[in-house]
Amino acid sequence: MKRSLPFIAGAAVLLLLVILSTTGKKPPLIPADKTHRAAISDESCGPCHGPGMPSPLKAIHPPKEQCVHCHQRSR
């Protein structure tokens, strides 16, 4: 019984990490409108979502040069 306790504790921690990693907030989808159809790379997002532009990203936004890495196209 003493030998299985560390295994059970490790399995519980692993299960907790899996649950936490799958229940997080997902990034919003790239809209399927006319404006965003042309957005095929990270560089095409800057003209609207860069600093001082019409729809700038919030200051708390994670790394801003990997848009299509996180955001998926809506269908």
Structural class, from secondary structure content? mainly alpha
Helix content: 40-55%
Number of H/I helices: 4
Q: What proportion of the residues form beta strands (DSSP E)?
A: under 5%
Unreliable spans are: none
Number of domains: 1
What is the element string, with H for helices and E for strands? HHHH
Q: How would you explain this protein's 3D organization?
A:
The protein has one domain. Helices cover 41% and strands 0% of the residues. The longest helix is centred in the first third of the chain and has 19 residues. The radius of gyration is 20 Å and the shape is elongated. The N and C termini lie far apart (53 Å). The model has no long low-confidence stretch (mean pLDDT 85).
Brief digest:
With 75 residues, this protein is mainly α. The protein contains four helices and no strands.
Can you give keywords for this protein?
4 helices, single chain, mainly alpha, about 40% helix
Strands, helices and their partners?
Blueprint: H1 4-22, H2 34-37, H3 46-49, H4 67-70
